[in-house]
User: Fold these one by one.
Assistant:
Number 1:
Amino acid sequence: MFRGEPDEMSGSEILLTLLGSEIRGDLLVLFHKNPGLIDTVDAIARRIGRTTVTVISELRELLELGVLRQKRIGASEVVFLDRAKDRELLESVANHLKTIRIGGEK
Amino acid sequence: MRTRESSPTNPHGNFGSASRSMDLDQRFAAEKAFSSVLVSTVREAVGNALGHNVLEILASKGLLDDASNSKEFDRKLQSLFGNGAAVLERIVVKDLNRKLGIPYNSEARLDYEKSLEIAREVCFVESRMK
Amino acid sequence: MTAPRSKTGASAFDLFSSKVEEGLRVKTGIVELDEMLRGGFMPGDAVMLAGSAGTGKTTLALQYLVSGVKLGEPGVYVTFEELPDQIYRDAKNFGWDLRKMEEQDKFRVICTSPNLVLESGDGSLLDDVLHDIQPRRLVIDSLSHLEMFVKKDDMRMEAYRVIRYLKTRGISSVLLWESPQISGASFSVTDVGLSFLVDCIVALKPVEIESSMRKALVVLKMRGSDHDKRLREYEITSAGIKIESAFSNYEGIISGSPRKVASEKFMEMFRGASEKQKKA
């Protein structure tokens, strides 16, 4: 099982991880629109129109961050959104964005 | 304005003439309709990617007001998100293209400004056809 | 002398005895349906909601869960096909804000694969879901999807496991079943014998009457309770399912060949003849 250490990460670092790639963006959108989605990596990859091979490394980043979690059900490994962690991380992101003045000055 | 969920159109057709052949009133109405679709798409994209709290913060910084001005929107997004801006722009374009029936190619390098221009022209063509 | 009957077909005695246990019933929130069920479903029962595509199974199931939330009973909607996003949108059309209920931990829409629900033992998918919000009501949309992952011969056993799992936890479940056709006097609405496993069957059927499509609802079975045995017309309105009067002027609706009852035909002929005479 993958675990991250997001408690020590700043809002900007969290943001960098969340929006690190288009696939991660697609995964975020998928799970935020469907927070009750619980499925295998293969099924999730299909849902965003990708292959398992292209998705798995991106999924790993989000698992390490903690926004997604993984568990074994029978013979299958499934992935699902950790709603509480997701709220916490997005709050950190929001707090970070509040401090930024448009133009890049803090 | 009617938006389509499917039936891809050719985004590279000669749509450039669409806006020129419209009178001012038609053009104004079409621009307004496109702006409305774009703003709602940006709201959905940012809200779905980063949640509603983040969306409201961006709205308070005037980001949504600049949605139709792709250069300014891109600049502000870069200030706030750095490299992550490109990911958000892709999400916006993907959603916008889906609504307008324009094919989206995730392999191609994204030119946000050009993508919005194509979407705008498709909207104008749709408005003329009504 | 027969006991007076209410518009739902229940005798005064039936209504009295069912009123005693009405407080224990699981209300659907659809007033007329609760009357047909003499107060609601029995607590902890497994209810099959069978019907072909477009008959309003999802709407009725959502309405059942939303009503439960209003009564303080958390609910879970398990979907195998439609994504939660679609369910949220459909529910919003009826004025039901499922996302808000989820934020309040009163509701969950779970989207997963049927084979994951079938996995039993510690740490099963349903275990986590039940632990999360302690639901009293649960909908599975739909049990028919299990057929994709289970051999036909094993279907009954697998369905039994799921039903037993929910019943032993005291959860009042509604299990959707996509049936191509419900006809005849048989209780069998599935071709794998599931109708014998459930405690109650509510069937939804589109019917053609006088060149227009209408919808019919009937309670085919209800263990341990009397119920209205008539076919009632229903509509899907902007507020959800609304049940109208019984199809008392027609027969043969379930068989797919509706026709006016003899007495109604006679009345029509009589009216027709009467009109002609007046004109003459």
Number 2:
Amino acid sequence: MAVLEEPIKEVLNIKNFIDGEWAESEGQIKDIANPATGKVIARVPISTQDDIDAAVASAQEAFPDWRRTPPLARVRCLFRLKDLLEENFEELSRIQTMEHGKTIDESRGETRRGIEMVEVATGIPSLMMGSNLEDIASGIDEYLIRQPLGVFGIIGPFNFPFMVPLWFAPFAVATGNCIVVKPSSEDPISQVKIAELAEEAGIPPGVWNVVHGGRTVVSGMLNHPHIEGICFVGSTPVGRDVIYKGCGDTGKRVIVMCGAKNFALVMPDADLNRTIAACMTSFYGNTGQRCLANANLVVVGEGLSQEEYDAFYATVVDAFVSAASRIRIGYGLDDTVHMGPLRDAQKKEKVVKYIEKGIEQGATLRLDGRNVDLVGDLPDTCFVGPTVFEDVTLDMAIAREEIFGPVANMMKASSLDEAIAMIHRIPFGNAASIFTASGKWARQFQYDVECGNIGINVGIAAPMAFFPFSGMKDSFFGTLHGQGQEAIRFFTESKVVIQRWF
Amino acid sequence: MDSLNVTASAIISFTEKLEDRSSAFYEELADRWVDSKEAFLAFAKESKKNKTQVIRTYQETITDALEACFSFEGLDLRDYEIETALAKDASYVEALGIALELEETACAFYLDVADRSESLLATIPRAFRRVAKKRGKHKLELQSLRDKAAAGS
């Protein structure tokens, strides 16, 4: 076992970051434990309405000056932030592993994708430009300008504590807005570190605020009359409330990115070695706590006889189970480990209940992750190993509901049409993947499937920072998505000027 | 450790150690055999550069969207463990022999991991191949030093 050095040596007393200062909250304090070791690593405040009011007031006050700061000057702050993130790359990554549980490779991957958002947002002087047309009528010109709106709230999930708030924050700030970030109260340390670096990068007080907490902070943000818009990433039930109850009542613009139940289709002509390797990361990466994780694997028998199909199905499932059973589970800072723990004991309990439900509803448990062999001497409080079910049908809870854990369901479809119909019977539409060598099948898949992110021979269909992070059906509520040009449109108001000079 | 399932991070940690050990080894050689000091110090400097370049490439390439953790199927790092400790009374030719073995092992390691990461990652195999090429050049220079030493003795 080769465990990398832990960057957090003593328990951190986390504070809010309001108006460029680290501020204590009057709210209760919650312990944050490293899910792999069980050791408390930080204490976070569950902030009050007063805290959120103070943060919004500070952001409002900062807005006029920040908005008037030339775009090039604003992005110079982001260039410095990018440099600081690079300088602190390893520490930031190890913190994610300590607070969330993911492996160090996964954390470094998360850090990289977060930095990419900052990199893309530094293009704002070009990306934010409007458009114009002369002589739309006699002697009249018309042009469009994009203006920032004011204060935005960003509510982050626990599964990507570093990256997800960065899907929005750099774009909001670069376009001239001010933000209040509420990290998940389960793993808030990464956002504290980012705020420290944002301050060091020269982003003025009040432009980038962080308020920790739970429901009080969320509802305080949703109901706040001076917050113009909300970016939320979390579960579908909460997401519905965010858009329809919270932001619907107050008329805020929203990006609400929610739950998923993603399918991977394996066609008879797929390159099996590469498919299985991709599936391991897709199904079990981040311990299944990823909205782009695949959960249902459909072995498709298009063009095969029954006998051929049975043999193909057995080959795919055997290879999947064999690879899954070789995944090493333990502390993510041990770089011989492939999969870390779930974020906390409640999440483990939820996953275990789903495994039990799967058995009750008639699925066959091919690989049981409940009794897991760990690398190293660790408490098993938050660990569940890779789990594989066979004989899964779409009416089962394990096939329809988001488990958010390392559980894979093996399913059958005799044709591509049937497999696509299966995807459409699920209420979610976040992502779907197909593994095939056929351009025809791949095109049919991308054309017909009602999901926002499509992977063709790619297990995790994660859009890069310059493309929108899409999503459909119960996986996304709103109009414009995070990342890229859509984020810029979300964080700005279009104003059209029609001018004539006499 | 399961030799069939090595993480990208473990490969990078191994690379770091290999290059650290190489630079320390060549610095020791430079101290002990001043006639070849310049060549040995150049090798040591290159090892430091190799480490920086490989880590930077890895950090700039690894992403949450890539299949990073399972990239090195079938690799056994024990195949590339190498002892560089030099006996106090080791001769110049013996030292060159250890250096040649180090370069051969390092070169084989980098080519192996380049081949195994070819299908999933784009820039990482290229970085490994670049280091393998440099290690190959070291080997030729070391052979030439050894030939000269043999001719002189």
